[in-house]
Amino acid sequence: MTATTATAASEPFDFDHLVQDERVHGSVYSNEALFELEMQKIYYGGWVFVGHDSEVPKIGDYQRRTLGREEVIFLRARDNGIRVMSNRCSHRGNLLAIEKTGNTRYFTCQYHGWVFDLDGNLKDVPFPGGFTKDHDCMRVKQLKTEVYRGFVFASFDPNVGPLDQHLGRGKELIDRACDMSPVGRVRLSAGWVKHRFATNWKMLPEGDTDGYHVQYTHSSFAKVTRSHYDSGLLEQEEDLTSQTIDWGNGHTELYLKPQYKQYMEWLGVKPDRFPDYIAKMKEVYGEEKGHYLLMAGAPHAVIFPNLFIGEMNIVFFQPVNAHECIQWHTALLLEGVSDQLNARILRNSEAAMGPAGLLLADDGAIAERTQHSLRDRADWCDISRGLDRQETGPDGKIHGHVSDECTNRAFWREYKKVMTA
Amino acid sequence: MTAQLRADAAETSLRPSIEERREIEDFLFLEARLADESRYADWEALVDDDMMYWVPRGEGDYDMATQMSIIADNRSRLRTRLAQLMTGERHAQLPVSLLRRVIGNIEIEKTAADEYRVFSNFVAYELRRASNGQTVVWPCRVEHRLRRRPDGLRMFLKKVMIVHGDEAVGSLGFIL
Question: Which residues in chain A touch residue B87, judged by CB atoms under 8 angstroms apart?
Answer without folding.
Answer: 219-220, 223-224
